[in-house]
Design goal:
Elements lengths: L8 H14 L7 E2 L1 H16 L17 H8 L1 E4 L14 H8 L5 E7 L2 E5 L12 E5 L4 E4 L3 E2 L19 E2 L3 E6 L9 E9 L2 E2 L2 E4 L15 E6 L8 E9 L4 E10 L1
Length: 260
């Protein structure tokens, strides 16, 4: 028998919107009822077939539905915890990049027990009038975690392609989103990326997904990941700076955050 969802779809969207706004990323994401039903059916399919998580459904198996099959293939799946404990995708950087993407406007959401389904593939398209850089964590954020250990991200995690494989503890992933008209006009290049803390410059690995075929299909153009090689200090102030060169513009952003 399926577990009762601990957090309702509406509450999931509210929590995600609040997290985005707290980091200076546009909120206002709405819940798509049809996609939510698909997510519920997909989670039920996983439960009936004893599957922790899957992006696929096989016709003829118990619980198979067409909208569940679409939801499984068009979104993010998690099986470690529900939204009552915070964002269950926090340690899955590719998944977080899709959920924090400034252009996200609507989604389907459902959870049961530890299984979470978020249908998002068709939910993008928020108009952003001018070329802009958004980041996660955002400027002025406090309580930022000092470390991160990625587990179970498929087909690969950003750290996997720069020598920081899953299972290794690093500093928290820092996300850079380049959005606006330039997002659809050509290639991007991250010409400057640095993080400075109380001990001076922080050793980081920069991930440009366009250079790595394993992860390129899963993130929007102009998305970059900065990964501190080692955990950050606790109760410490950090300054990050990036310069993104786009097809018709160059933007620099400097922002600050403090660790927990």
């Amino acid at each position: 028998m399926a577990l009762v969802a601990a957090v309702t779809p509406g509450q999931i969207v509210a929590k995600l919107n609040a997290q985005r706004v707290a980091n200076g990323i546009p909120g206002g994401i709405t819940l798509n009822a049809q996609w939510t039903a698909g997510c519920q059916h997909h989670v039920h399919y996983e439960e009936l077939n004893g599957i922790a998580w899957t992006h696929q459904e096989t016709p003829g198996k118990p619980g198979f539905t067409k909208d569940g099959q679409i939801a499984g293939g068009a979104g993010d799946q998690s099986y470690t915890s529900g939204w009552e404990f915070g964002n269950p995708f926090e340690n899955l950087p590719l998944h977080m990049a899709t959920l924090m993407a400034p252009g996200l406007m609507q989604l389907g959401a459902y959870e049961s027990g530890r299984r979470v389904c978020m249908e998002i593939a068709m939910g993008y398209g928020r108009p952003i009038a001018s070329n802009t850089l958004f980041t996660y964590p955002g400027n002025g954020r406090t309580g930022v975690v000092t470390s991160q250990t990625v587990h179970g991200e498929w087909p690969a995690s950003p750290g996997d392609v720069v020598g920081l494989p899953q299972g290794r503890t690093t500093g928290p992933t820092i996300y850079v989103f380049s959005v606006g008209p330039w997002q659809f006009q050509g290639a991007f290049h991250l010409s400057v990326a640095k993080v400075v803390g109380p001990g001076g410059p922080v050793a980081i690995r920069v991930v440009d997904p366009t250079q790595h075929p394993k992860i390129k299909p899963y993130v929007a153009p102009g998305t970059f990941f900065l990964i501190p090689v080692s955990p950050l200090r606790s109760h410490a102030h950090y300054t990050a700076t990036v310069t993104v060169v786009g097809p018709n513009d160059t933007l620099t952003k400097t922002w600050h955050f403090t660790t927990a």
